[in-house]
Write a structure and sequence with these properties.
Helix content is about 45%, strand content about 15%. The chain is of the alpha+beta class and about 150 residues long. The chain is flat and about 55 Å long. It binds zinc ion (2 copies). The site of one zinc ion has 5 residues, from strand 3.
Length: about 150
Amino acid sequence: MAEMTTVLEKIRDQGERMTMPRRLVIEALGQSHKHRTIADIHLYMQAHYPDYGISDTTIYRVLQWLKDLELISQTDIGQAGVVYALIDHPCHHHLICLSCGETFTVDDAPFATLRDQLQQNYGFEARIEHMAVYGHCRKCVESGKTK
Ligand SMILES: [Zn+2]
Ligand SMILES: [Zn+2]
């Protein structure tokens, strides 16, 4: 839950107002290290706050707000759709196979190198905090199923 405390602190530091929907969405995201879709968050609300009706539109708005504050990342990971996650450090990324649909989680090392080079060569500070990279997995490449 350390993560969630950090998020709440950052929001306070930025002078943002905390409302009930905001608090609950942050709680739903902080409950696990997994990513959550809007549907997942809705299910969490129904399970934990059955009397508190919150619409998908409200959830979506809160997520956009958190994204603007750079506290969450939004990533399209293929079949699972668009997922949201609190930005964790060190961050992780996903490799998604276009042939079999398998997804792999990878650590930040290759992306840290990419960030460094973009910084050095272009003076560009890339925000690469939760990437989805599409391609073909080893299994599919080796069995020739990449077409
Ligand atoms: Zn992820
Ligand atoms: Zn594959």
